[in-house]
């Protein structure tokens, strides 16, 4: 492969891989605390994108119960500035985080109280996903919604430079996605690694019973975890939506599944693992030759299958899946 | 009566079909294996039948066999599903609990993407115009195929449970190490249970292709995996009637709710949430115990994988070290 192609693929891979990473972090946080996989995470991802869309555009097309509503008539000051878009993204992610807390409250906490089979928690979270996805469809229809084209205002033009006689184009969106993801990962790494809250979170993840004996309110930290998880999922949804448009209520399903591949690849419950897994899968997908691009969606699952057979604990995981 | 079958035949057949798919997941679960691979084998079986019934390459075979070609498709689907089950099962069954579930999800997704891109499977459009089995005129007549298959499967499952193999399945489920120490080979029985499920799902697929008239990559998806898992867990995972009741009921609910049109899928989701909250033993489990507490004093009264999965996040306890 020529150098220009290599650089191009690398950039594409890093951008999408960093989104996979922050999305998958949401999965892995919940898994590390509760030991269950929250299958509603993909739906939360979708919700985040829809929340942000509502805040910046506020206009719904011809299907669904909210059809024809226009929150911000043309010329509103709420569009066109990158800062407004950034604020909307943040609010969208907060909204997704709150929904995630609600999901914990309705679908997981009652299960925990009864000591129910974790498999049932899985079915319950799937039920929640079904409810969310179909409510979206009911309310705003199944259309593709694109963020306003002036979302980034003057930042819009893409960067491009020449290597040899080929031109490498890096979309501004990709740079923003990569930058935001890095910033989020740095903040999260700091919070979990260095602060008191992070220490308590890790204690709960390690052993909830002991943590509660040490005076840590386990329920409170579970709520914090779900908020963080939903925040990250919703943020990833908006970032992907910014790059590709929000493709209907089922937008998050593929990401939900790929996120599973990411966290298993990195090591279930491992935070650095989720980041590594995200980047590996993003890069692997970017380097699929264009002749085989139809098989791109299978790459993540092929990697998942192989890693499970070769090293079930994942790249950075420590506990043996054999005993699980 | 004719009228009844005209109106509800399709639904009835779909309910029986769902019960069968539930059972195909129930078999591996008997050996403690949470496998979500059923839709993969179901899709494979359907493609086998669809290709044998429509592809010009098999024209001569169809002419020579007449209606006998249908049972032949079931047989071929069963054999191929069984072989694929063996190929996937032997390595995958080293995994447990959620890891096996994820590996089988990956398997289903890979099969889906592959079938979406092959020309023999008709790519994204799929295969259509599949002839009706035995020249059936009405969809309800498929009860003549799915009904006996369900009865046979139930008899087989009941016999299996009483047999040595069935006891070995349960031994592996309850305590693999102890079973191994007693000379019951976990690998062997896990693979057996997995392959039985695969074969059943394959046959159901082969019968479903003519029933649905068309077959495409949408038949074997993650959603289907979850739907089938829900059949078993909501129906009850400890009794052969669980998957049957769960499959039939969960298939019927969206149809019964049809007057509620757009809301029915939302309600279907709520049913899943509420049922997993309030019927943790599944419908059959709850009914058959008559409200009495479970026999085993178990801190977490539940299905087969409770202890195994919930221990997965205690990464630093001694016995969890590699």
TrEMBL record, chain A:
Molecular function in Gene Ontology: L-isoleucine transmembrane transporter activity; L-leucine transmembrane transporter activity; L-phenylalanine transmembrane transporter activity; L-valine transmembrane transporter activity
Keyword Cytoplasm: no
Keywords per UniProt: Amino-acid transport, Cell inner membrane, Cell membrane, Membrane, Transmembrane, Transmembrane helix, Transport
Cell compartments where the protein resides: Cell membrane
Parts of the chain that traverse the membrane: 12-36, 43-60, 80-107, 119-147, 167-192, 221-247, 259-282, 294-310
The keyword Cell inner membrane is annotated on this UniProt entry: yes
A single BP term in Gene Ontology: L-alanine transport
UniProt similarity note: Belongs to the binding-protein-dependent transport system permease family. LivHM subfamily.
PANTHER family in UniProt: BRANCHED-CHAIN AMINO ACID TRANSPORT SYSTEM PERMEASE PROTEIN LIVH (PTHR11795), HIGH-AFFINITY BRANCHED-CHAIN AMINO ACID TRANSPORT SYSTEM PERMEASE PROTEIN LIVH (PTHR11795:SF371)
Name assigned to this protein: Branched-chain amino acid transport system permease protein
Source species: Deinococcus humi
Automatic annotation (TrEMBL), chain B:
CDD domains: TM_PBP1_LivM_like
Membrane topology: Multi-pass membrane protein
PANTHER family, A to Z: HIGH-AFFINITY BRANCHED-CHAIN AMINO ACID TRANSPORT PROTEIN BRAE, HIGH-AFFINITY BRANCHED-CHAIN AMINO ACID TRANSPORT SYSTEM PERMEASE
Region (Disordered): 288-322
Swiss-Prot/TrEMBL keywords: Cell membrane, Membrane, Transmembrane, Transmembrane helix
Segments crossing the lipid bilayer: 6-29, 41-60, 72-93, 100-128, 140-160, 191-212, 224-253, 265-284
Family matches, as Pfam families: BPD_transp_2
Designated name of the protein: Branched-chain amino acid transport system permease protein
Lineage per the UniProt record: Bacteria, Thermotogati, Deinococcota, Deinococci, Deinococcales
GO CC entries: plasma membrane
Native species: Deinococcus humi
GO molecular function, one term: branched-chain amino acid transmembrane transporter activity
Location(s), subcellular: Cell membrane
Start-end of Polar residues biased regions: 307-322
């Amino acid at each position: 492969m020529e150098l220009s192609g290599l650089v191009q693929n690398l950039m594409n891979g890093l951008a999408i891989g960093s989104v996979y990473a922050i999305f998958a972090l949401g999965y892995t946080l919940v898994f590390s605390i509760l030991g269950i996989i929250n299958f509603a995470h993909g739906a939360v991802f979708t919700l985040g994108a829809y929340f942000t869309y509502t805040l910046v555009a506020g206009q719904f097309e011809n299907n669904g119960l909210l059809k024809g509503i226009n929150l911000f008539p043309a010329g509103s000051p709420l569009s066109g500035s990158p800062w407004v878009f950034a604020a909307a993204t943040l609010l969208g992610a907060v909204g997704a985080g709150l929904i995630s807390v609600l999901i914990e409250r309705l679908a997981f906490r009652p299960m925990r109280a009864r000591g129910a089979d974790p498999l049932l928690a899985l079915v319950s979270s799937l039920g929640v996903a079904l409810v969310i996805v179909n409510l979206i469809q009911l309310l705003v229809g199944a259309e593709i919604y694109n963020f306003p084209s002036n979302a980034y205002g003057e930042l819009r033009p893409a960067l491009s430079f020449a290597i040899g006689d080929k031109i490498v184009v890096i979309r501004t969106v990709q740079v923003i996605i990569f930058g935001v993801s890095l910033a989020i990962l740095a903040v999260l790494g700091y919070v979990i690694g260095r602060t008191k809250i992070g220490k308590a979170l890790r204690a709960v993840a390690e052993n909830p019973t002991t943590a509660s004996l040490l005076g840590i309110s386990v329920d409170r930290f579970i709520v914090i975890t779900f908020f963080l998880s939903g925040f990250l999922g919703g943020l990833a949804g908006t970032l992907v939506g910014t790059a590709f448009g929000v493709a209907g209520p089922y937008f998050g399903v593929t990401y939900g599944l790929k996120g599973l591949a990411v966290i298993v690849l990195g090591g279930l419950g491992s935070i650095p693992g989720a980041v590594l897994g995200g980047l590996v899968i993003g890069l692997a997908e970017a380097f699929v030759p264009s002749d085989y691009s139809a098989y791109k969606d299978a790459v993540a699952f092929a990697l998942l299958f192989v890693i499970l057979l070769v090293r079930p604990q994942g790249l950075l995981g420590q506990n043996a899946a054999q005993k699980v | 009566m004719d009228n009844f079958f005209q109106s509800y035949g399709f639904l009835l057949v779909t309910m029986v079909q769902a019960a069968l798919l539930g059972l195909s997941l129930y078999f591996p679960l008997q050996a403690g294996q949470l496998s979500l691979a059923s839709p993969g084998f179901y899709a494979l079986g359907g493609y086998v039948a669809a290709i044998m019934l429509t592809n010009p390459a098999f024209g001569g075979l169809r002419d020579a066999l007449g209606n006998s070609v249908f049972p032949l498709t079931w047989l071929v689907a069963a054999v191929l599903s069984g072989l694929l089950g063996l190929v996937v099962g032997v390595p995958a069954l080293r995994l447990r609990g959620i890891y096996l579930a994820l590996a089988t999800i990956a398997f289903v997704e890979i099969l889906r993407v592959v079938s979406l891109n092959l020309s023999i499977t008709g790519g994204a459009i799929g295969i259509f115009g599949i002839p009706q089995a035995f020249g059936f005129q009405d969809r309800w007549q498929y009860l003549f195929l799915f009904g006996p298959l369900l009865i046979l499967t139930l008899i087989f499952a009941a016999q299996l449970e009483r047999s040595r193999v069935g006891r070995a399945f349960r031994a592996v489920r309850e305590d693999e190490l102890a079973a191994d120490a007693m000379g019951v080979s976990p690998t062997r029985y896990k693979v057996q249970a997995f392959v039985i499920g695969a074969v059943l799902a394959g046959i159901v697929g082969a019968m479903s292709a003519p029933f649905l008239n068309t077959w495409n990559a949408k038949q074997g998806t993650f959603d289907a995996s979850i739907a089938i898992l829900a059949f078993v867990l909501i129906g009850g995972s400890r009794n052969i009637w669980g998957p049957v009741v769960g499959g039939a009921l969960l298939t019927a609910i969206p149809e019964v709710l049809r007057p509620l049109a757009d809301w029915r899928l939302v309600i279907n989701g709520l049913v899943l949430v509420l049922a997993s909250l309030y019927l943790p033993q599944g419908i059959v489990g709850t009914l058959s115990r008559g409200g009495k507490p479970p026999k085993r004093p178990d801190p977490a009264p539940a299905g087969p994988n409770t202890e195994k999965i919930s221990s997965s996040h205690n990464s630093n306890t001694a016995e969890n070290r590699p």
